[in-house]
Structure formats: C-alpha cells, structure tokens
Amino acid sequence: MTDAADMATACVVAFIFIIVRAGRHAARLRAVRSGGQIAWRKSKR
Questions:
Q1: What is the span of the domain harbouring residue 29?
Q2: What confidence tens digit (pLDDT) does each residue in 10-38 have?
Q3: Count of structural domains within the chain
Q4: What is the spatial distance between Cα 16 and Cα 14, in angstroms, rounded to a whole number?
C-alpha cells in the first residue's frame, strides 16, 4: 500500500501546487479569460 499512498500524496501535493499557481495567475486573467473563451468559441463555430 506504500506505493498507492505515495502516489496519492504526490497527486495531492501537485494538485495543490497547480491550484495555488493557477489561482494567482487567474486572479488577473479571470475576467479576460472567461470573456475571451466565450468569444473564441463563438468565432470558432
């Protein structure tokens, strides 16, 4: 079970790390990104 525990721990740590970094980045771009993705999807169709 050690391998499974190590995998779970690594996934949790990586997940938190990604969320923290993405959260800081998205804090600036959230409004632009949400509006930009909608416009991009419409233009792609």
A1: 1-45
A2: 999 999 998 888 877 766 666 665 666 66
A3: 1
A4: 6
The alpha carbon torsion through 25, 17, 15, 4 (nearest 10 deg) reads 170
- Cα–Cα distance, 36 to 9 (Å, whole number): 35
Chain-centroid distance, C-alpha 16: 10
**Exposed e or buried b per residue across 12-34, where buried means at least 16 C-beta atoms within 10 angstroms of its C-beta:** eeeeeeeeeeeeeeeeeeeeeee
Q: What is the pLDDT of residue 45?
A: 61
Q: Name residue 20's amino acid.
A: V
Size of the chain in residues? 45
